Amino acid sequence: MKRPSILVLGAGYGGLTTVVNLQKVLGTDAADITLINKNEYHYESTWLHEAAAGTLLPEQVRYDIKDVIDGVKVKFVQATVEAIDVVGKKVSTDNGEFTYDYIVIALGFEGETFGIEGLDKYALSIANVKAARYIREHIEFQFASWSTDAVKDDSRLTIIVGGAGFTGIEFLGELANRVPELCKEYDVPREKVRVVCVEAAPMVLPGFDPELVNYAVGHLESKGIEFSIGTPVVEATPEGVKIKKGDEEFEFIKAGTVVWAAGIRGNRLIESTPIENMRARVKVEKDLRAPGYDDVFIIGDCALMINPETNRPFPPTAQIAMQQGESVAKNLKALMNNETTIEFTPDLKGTVCSLGDADAIGVVFGKKVTGKRASFMKKMIDNRALLMIGGPMLVMKKGKFNVLK
Ligand code: FAD
């Protein structure tokens, strides 16, 4: 009898966890498992703000997929997915076509600019490891140019960060540490540099405890970060951004760098399938299958689940993507054994938002944490993700051990 074929698209947190768990729960001959990913490496999306600010090397953020999968049980194909045909059960890539009996779509997130004029063209987005490297080099180029320009334009040294949500704040935390280093390296007086966070909503870090938010804002302001809250970006141009400050009042901030960290959506490939979706995120069934498609699982940032306690979607996180990967592996095994699938419920252990390398805020197991303790926990969370996917060897190779800073 032909073995069922399982296709996993994307080797991020969700896809890799699925595959690593399939390796555990399925015997060698139980299925043909193929993992398809754009690059031959996985990158830690949750560390991208560090690579973008230049506080961590891009190489440190990624590792080879082949180092963490069992080549006997899983075939890895480096390819870019171009189309998913959930009716014909096939996937087209730049490296051939693949058919499947079961598919797991774990293609992650893309930036969302909500149609704001010029953002797509002129703002940078911390979307993947290559984009993070680009941002780092762009900022460094601005500093290097300023220091050699005969006629100096100080706006080169202004960095606008659009969005005071989780990603924006974590990026600002890294910039707060990186800017003094860049000033020293390129002979730039610190007072020439502006880092401005622009947020449309009336608050920073919506959903976070107000005491923790005050701590974060106080910490960042003490390091020279400016906040412009309740002032939506209405346009981006090659020179900077226009923000709305009142009913009829606008301000143009000239800037050499604009990084948009204010919104994400699912992978656009979802939108060209017949599966119902909202900004490429699919409201999945309780066992993580796509409505109407029993052989299609969707996890991670491409999936959307409503939190019954708040009646709002769970935020897209690596924590949930990895738990979903574990659950999908069990459900695939169940389907192959003609058993009932299990329902997925996120087990939320807490959230920690870093404020640079040595400070953070968070709520862990219901308790508020700040400062060095929170920063230590953040690093442990980062190391745990490595452990779950690649075991102790990967933690030794890529882990964060500068915990006593
Ligand atoms: P990803 O991990 O993004 O993986 C998607 C994979 O699909 C990638 O390997 C990509 O290369 C591949 N891919 C994409 N398109 C194609 C294609 N066409 N063909 C082939 N392969 C493709 N979450 C937390 O829980 N805690 C945090 O502290 C946290 N911090 C964050 C900080 C930043 C700066 C960012 C950007 C995100 C953060 N998140 C955090 C969110 C978290 O990173 C995401 O929720 C998580 O990465 C989602 O996992 P995923 O498997 O869906 O996608």
TrEMBL record:
UniProt keyword Lyase present: no
Cross-referenced InterPro entries: FAD/NAD-bd_sf, FAD/NAD-binding_dom, NADH-Q_oxidoreductase
Entry keyword set: FAD, Flavoprotein, Oxidoreductase
Domain of life: Bacteria
Cofactor: FAD
GO molecular function, one term: NAD(P)H dehydrogenase (quinone) activity
FAD/NAD(P)-binding domain boundaries: 5-325
GO biological process, one term: aerobic electron transport chain
Family affiliation: Belongs to the NADH dehydrogenase family.
Identification of the protein by name: FAD-dependent oxidoreductase
Organism for this UniProt entry: Planococcus versutus
